[in-house]
Structure formats: structure tokens, C-alpha cells
Design a protein that fits this description.
Distance between the termini: 53 Å
Largest sheet: none
Structural class: mainly alpha
Length: 71
């Protein structure tokens, strides 16, 4: 059961990453880190997802500024 739950969460992360749903990916990695601390380096993956979310926010802010003419 533990292995199946882990596999399900990992598949969900792959799907959500493809959708660029970084908030959900971060939430899952935080859960995995708590529930399966010895299975993988969840911290590294969590940091990558947080970086992606930060980049997405910056990109959206920049696009918004360009669209409104702000500098």
C-alpha cells in the first residue's frame, strides 16, 4: 500500500508539472517529504518546484507590465 501511494503521488506530480500547476506540485512534495522522508530527495524537488512557481510569477508580472506599458 505504501509503495502504491508513493507511485500515485509521483504520477500526480508528473501530470501537474506538465500542466505547470506549481502550487499543487509544491503541496504534494511537502506531503511526500513528511510521509516518505527516506524514499527520495524530496527537498531538492520541492526547491525546483518553488523556483518554477517564482519564475512563473515573475514572468506573469513582466507580461502584465508590458501589456499596460509600465516599466
Amino acid at each position: 500500500q505504501r509503495k502504491r501511494k508513493l507511485e500515485k503521488k509521483q504520477a500526480e506530480v508528473v501530470r501537474l508539472s506538465a500542466e505547470e500547476n506549481w502550487d499543487a506540485v509544491i503541496s504534494i512534495y511537502e506531503t511526500l517529504q513528511r510521509e516518505f522522508p527516506k524514499e527520495a530527495d524530496w527537498q531538492a524537488e520541492l526547491i525546483k518546484a518553488q523556483a518554477q512557481l517564482s519564475l512563473e510569477k515573475r514572468y506573469n508580472e513582466a507580461v502584465g507590465a508590458l501589456e499596460t506599458g509600465d516599466q
